[in-house]
Amino acid sequence: MRIFCNFFIALVGFFSLCTISPEVHAATGKEPVMTSSPDAWVLVDGISGFVMGAHDKDKALSPGELVHLMVIYTALDATAGDKKALNASVTISSADALRSSSSRRLYLVPGEPHSLKTLLHSIAVTGAEDAVLAVASHFDKETDAFATRMNETAQKLGLMHSRFVSPVDHANNRMSAHDIARLTMAIKKRFPQAYKWFSEKEFVFTTHSLRNRNLLLWRGSGIDGVMSNANNTSVVGSWHRDRNKNVMPRDVIAVLLGGQTSDLTTADVQTLLRHGRLEYETLRLFPANTLVTKIDILTGNREKLEVGSADAIWVTVPRQDIVSRGMGGFSTQFEYMAPAVAPVKTGEVIGKLRVYFQNKHIDDFDLVAMHDVGPGSFLSRYVDSVRLRMKPADNQSHPVVVEPRSEESDIKTQP
Q: What is the pLDDT along the chain (415 residues), one digit of tens a residue?
């Protein structure tokens, strides 16, 4: 879409879309106290992506065996989750099976075939390095080439603090806590069936079984994964709440890197998950494919352009603030370049919805065109072009109040 001149700001009123569970008490608002002296940690809402707490979250550190998360996502991304590709046979080579006695292994036998899905499943549960190498060689002849593939995939995901030289634990692999949290969110959102592997406590393979190293799986209800390093001092944990008539669904993800001991690290991740669960709430402002506002558009075959959210818009706020202020604490602004000029295609980003709670900026979300606007007639284009030339620039930015819409409108929505 061609755009012209300065920012045009439309103030959009916010309305209540959710109910809060009466069973959970208001939070104290205190920061979680870590006892394992970790190098870095981050607590993220798995739906909105909001960071609820962090320490050195963007510091690039050695992820240890947590690099296997990137291996799994890279392989799933390469197959696009296709069942036929996941069921493809992987023949084990001698190099794949040759691992040190100290590493986690499935004890793969050279020459034996196993499905790609089985190998990925085993990595999610056990972190078996022979399975990791077999997966890497299935896609690329050399592990270096697969590491390059991992870097390219990380770049597409926007993981700015990640760099890989090997698909297995290597001193020069780097990831930040925040990158690991975002990667975990990507796996859960794009490959939900594969994400369920991380919740399994053991993996049965041919004649033997291997136990999941993630101690969190034995530490409470609602915890659905995800992974730990070899000595359980770097851990990714997640907690899930299903949607019901009283509450919206929630996912809380905690990443802790470089804790002192296994027990202290596990306890700290539990503390983080509990903090995110009790101290914050995540609310849906707009369902997907929802009209948010209409704006003027020039040189087109329509005078108004409907703008909305392609994806559901979720925000995370302190629970205590919701209890004290209610939904009236929210406000939004829609910002876009004005005037909008045709042609415009469906799905084209028009501007940003800025969300505030108690006048504090929370997050920004892209809003898109909900329909095409083609070129207008020769006469209408001529008139609009004259208007564009004659209208002073300093009068082209002004606020417009837009009526809020109810979730019960006839716009098609998604849960």
A: 443 333 343 434 433 333 333 332 233 357 889 999 999 999 999 999 999 999 999 999 999 999 999 999 999 999 998 999 999 999 988 887 776 566 788 888 899 999 999 999 999 999 999 999 999 999 998 999 999 999 999 999 999 999 999 999 999 999 999 999 999 999 999 999 999 999 999 999 987 889 999 999 998 789 998 999 999 999 999 999 988 877 788 999 999 999 999 999 999 999 999 999 999 999 888 899 989 888 888 888 998 999 999 999 999 999 888 887 776 778 888 888 878 889 999 999 998 888 888 888 888 999 999 999 998 888 777 777 777 777 643 333 333 233 333 333 332 323 3
Q: How many beta carbons lie within 10 A of that of residue 271, not counting itself?
A: 18
The whole-model pTM stands at: 0.83
Burial class (CB in 10 A: 0-12, 13-18, 19+), 407: middle
**Residue 363: beta bridge partners?**
355
Query: Could you give the CA distance from residue 411 to residue 310 in angstroms, rounded to a whole number?
Result: 12
Reduced to 3 states (helix: H, G, I; strand: E, B; else coil), residue 35 is coil
Closest Cα partner for 305 from 336, 354, 344? 344
